Amino acid sequence: MAGERPEARSGDPRTAGPARRAADRGRYGRLSRARVLASALELVDREGLSALSMRRLGAELGVEAMALYRYAEGKDALLDGLVEALYLELEERLAGQAEASSWRAELQRVARATYEVCLAHPQAVPLLTTRMLAVPLARRPLAVLRNHERVLTLLTGAGFDDAAVVGLFRAFNSWLIGYVSEELRPMVDNPDEEEPAFRLGLHRMPAHELPVLRGVAAALAERGGTEGLATGLDALLDRLAATG
Amino acid sequence: MAGERPEARSGDPRTAGPARRAADRGRYGRLSRARVLASALELVDREGLSALSMRRLGAELGVEAMALYRYAEGKDALLDGLVEALYLELEERLAGQAEASSWRAELQRVARATYEVCLAHPQAVPLLTTRMLAVPLARRPLAVLRNHERVLTLLTGAGFDDAAVVGLFRAFNSWLIGYVSEELRPMVDNPDEEEPAFRLGLHRMPAHELPVLRGVAAALAERGGTEGLATGLDALLDRLAATG
DNA sequence: CAGCGTATGTTTACGCCGTATACGTACACC
DNA sequence: GGTGTACGTATACGGCGTAAACATACGCTG
């Protein structure tokens, strides 16, 4: 650390001669797609999606914005890269665990791991829906497709016919993304407030028009957690495995 | 129609005198929040979310961008307004139908109507997840809160205790938004292509690494439709109504 | 009808954004 | 040691959201 030039762009250009060797470019050496994506994800985790701009990310890496275009074709591709990064993290997490013995248990394991990755990067989760709605199947990041392959293999391996596999696959994905999205909806309006009702900002809602919502709002603010996730998934798999 | 000035900003300002009466502002008379939101939604439906900018929407209404700030506090508020518009459309649709007799059937009716509204505005659907993740409960648009109230009322009216109500409510929302999101994922890569495999762009995927996905891709491209929606919802409600 | 406050839309300007294009420059290889 | 190339820089353009100051026509008061 101490030996590294802390800010590659500092110093008077008139006296510094060749200000930096090429390998010094970027705050800690050469760029790479992995470094760009890791830095982008970290930035999003720290400051939210809206803080992610090419210029800002460049600054984060000690580099001009245009340098990033060697590693992502544009901003959209960068966002797809973030999605890919999340799925790579999912693959790592799954690889670090023992596979379950039944297809049901294995799907539960995948679901749980996905949930955990999403909760670890809540600010990035919106990308899972928005980019998926922007990119056709065949252009999804490879890690996403590998995840699809994993789930589909599990289902066909369990002996379901094509129609059932498709139904189960869709239900699995739907429930997963829906559950996570619902789980991450912010409930607290004013974190500094002690009183639960004020914390939730209930005084902002038209009182008499929404009596039931007011009543259960506090309970709604709790999370369903992985139990809720597992319960719903179980219900769906039961039904569709029987029908299909 | 014929009597209205087709383009309020046209004409030579040096000869036109007071170029327009105040009531002529905007392409068809005064602005209003409803008109702004309707125009925004139409623009999004027509050209996608990325086409929606303050300037562009202003032009659409025959008005400068800043004029819109009288009807929405900023771009984010405008997007929340779009979410509200979708829920208002849902309310209309529900009001135009007979209520179902059981709480189960009524939830199915609400789910189906929501699905239909979403499929009518596919380009706007990402807002349902992104804005929901950006806005705490108490600040959601009123129409959204009314929708929550409707569902919660249905559930408490059916006699469930608070814990069960919350579980069912969350499962309902999760499944709904997840199913719609999954349903709207684009599958076709090249609409001009005849051959199904090429249409899907399967040649872009690493063949040997994703054999199962390749095999079911065509089936995956079909939609689950309202049947799939109803089936999954039924499974969830069954399980959670029994457990809760 | 006269005058005025207010509601409504315009103008101008600022800093940020994504990105096309042209350009240096240090490295790897012969 | 010279050269091609991979990598990052520099500059520029049009569009974005929006703050602030401004113009104007309506509706109310007398």
UniProtKB/TrEMBL annotation, chains A, B:
Transmembrane segments: none annotated. InterPro entries: Homeodomain-like_sf, HTH_TetR, Repressor_TetR_C, Tet_transcr_reg_TetR-rel_C_sf. Residues 53-72 bind DNA. One of its GO terms (biological process) is negative regulation of DNA-templated transcription. Residues 1-12 have a biased composition (Basic and acidic residues). Pfam families: TetR_C_1 (PF02909), TetR_N (PF00440). Residues 1-26 are annotated as: Disordered. SUPFAM superfamilies: Homeodomain-like, Tetracyclin repressor-like, C-terminal domain. Gene3D superfamilies: Homeodomain-like (1.10.10.60), Tetracycline Repressor, domain 2 (1.10.357.10). Keywords: DNA-binding, Transcription, Transcription regulation. GO terms for molecular function: DNA binding. Residues 30-90 form the HTH tetR-type domain. This is TetR family transcriptional regulator. It comes from Streptomyces pseudovenezuelae.
